[in-house]
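Feature request disguised as a bug: please show the residue count (667) next to DYW domain-containing protein in the output. Example input:
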Amino acid sequence: MADGQFPPPRTHTNPMPPLPPSTAAAAASAAALQQLESLLPRLSTLSHYKQYHARLLALGSLGTCPPLRARFLDRLALSPHAAALPHALLLLRSLPAPATNDLNAALRGLAASPQPARALLLLAGRLLPAPAPPRPRLDALSLSFALKAAARCSDALATLQLHAILVRLGVAADVRLMTTLLDSYAKCSDLASARKVFDGMHVRDVATWNALLAGLAQGTEPDLAISLFRRLARTYWELPPREEPNEVTIVAALSACAQLGALQDGLCVHEFARTIGVGDNVRVRNALIDMYSKCGSLNRALEVFRSIKLEDRTLVTYNTTIQALSMQGHGTDALKLFDEMPEWIEVDEVTYLAVLGGCNHAGLVDDGRRVFNSMRVPPSMKHYGAIVDLLGRAGRLAEAHDMIMSMPFPADIVLWQTLLGAAKMHGNVELAELSATKLAELGSNVDGDYVLLSNVYASKARWADVGRVRDTMRNNDVKKVPGFSYTEIDGVRHKFINGDKEHLKWREIYSALDDIVSRISELGYEPETSNVLHDIGEEEKQYALCYHSEKLAIAFGLISTPPGDTIRVIKNLRICGDCHVVAKLISKAYGRVIIIRDRARFHQFEDGECSCRDYWTTEIVNVAKEGLRQQQRMTGSSTELLDARPTMIALSSFTFSHDPRQQANSW
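Example output, currently without the count:
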């Protein structure tokens, strides 16, 4: 070999020695695991999941690859197949030492399942085998899934216990976890605790604000929801990006406005939505339709509906608009919109319920039957309730009763209350007694049942039976729901109860009522004392009628707003017949539009007419006549006035809402 040259490379005549058996097995196992990783997103059937589980067992990967096992458990627990979640729990129970991720996967599936309470049982270790394996350590995710389960169960005690656990674990600074805790308290109707959690959070994000807003709006404190939104809106320009409101914030605030009928606040929320750039969001627009309609501004609601492009409209858009038309008595328009729905939007049970409600409010019996018989979804109890109510109001009591008896499932309390209301409306004592008996068998003990039955007896002047029903109410400690109304003046809501003297301007209100009675008497008004079905004197009956809460609210509106302004009133019960007559006459005498939202629907009074076309009051004129005639025969008084003014007769305690548990201003 010459100097400076490199030696030739060595050549190996023998091949490389084979890998040790353990190394080869490890490589094959790694390849198999990689293949399983790629297959995991493609699992779709229960058979796939079982084969995958068997493959994991064969490879021994359940114990050697916890991340893959946890991902498989998570996918299995969230599978839509009914048998998948039990299989996931079976897998969890088979593990000798489950990890936190394994537990979280099962908790997540159980929390989203039809039986969320089982997530709480699993957390307590009651779903694990005995003797139980070592319990995995809980983390923030474990508590988050458990809190979601507690919220779905409305389990306030479990929420409180989980709150204590997260404090003990030292994770109370986790913003997302504390937001979930707040949401759970709110959904368990513990709004005071939800507010304490919110106030105690040093760091919040928009989800925190939204959770409290939604909890207050959907709970019992929509006023506080609006106050919270005002606070958020005032500080909008100072908020950090994580707390800036979004479309969910707007939807929650609009929900609160809709509950209260707070139109001025709703207009402000609408303007704020435009300011932050979510005014065109379809969810916001759907909420605007709902808010405007429930505040009695149907024209604004329809403007919002028309502003949504056809291709952007959703099922919720149509359901909300149909419901808006139905609630204001535009049953024909609701049916027309239902028929015009695009084919690509699949109607659901809510759609049919809204359409049936429109037929009910407008008295469209045949159309209602046609819609009910052509439903493309199985009718639920609510659908049967709507058609029974429709038939009952039309006086087709036998058909309504037959409908209940032919249902594929037993009638619930609300259905029998609906039939009882129809029996009361048409003075059918036998059907009323049958319905009352069924309600007693089902354990119902609400004031509306007794009020309805008592009113049927009173319409027939059966005062002894009225007394017996009232004695039963006393013995069973049944309290009648008090009627109240409120109206909004300059953004401030004023609440009134029957005979209210708590308002600062009660003297001016009572004086205005005297003026109202004087002016509408010139139009032929006389108090409809047939509305008060007590065996008391005529003068006492007139006094009982004069100071109903809706009359006080209207009178306050008249003295607090300029001439020509619309007066809007929200009432928790059904408007009584006398107040209905008075509102019509006030609209004529004072040239005002009066909009009253009661438990069942809207009534828009203008120039002496009502949008309900008296459908919900004049049906029971004959019943009122008969009851009053029987009483007058006993006292020897005249019935000439009754016969001379049949269109002015309306019996308040005989009107009936779809939820008869909230009934009647007076007996």
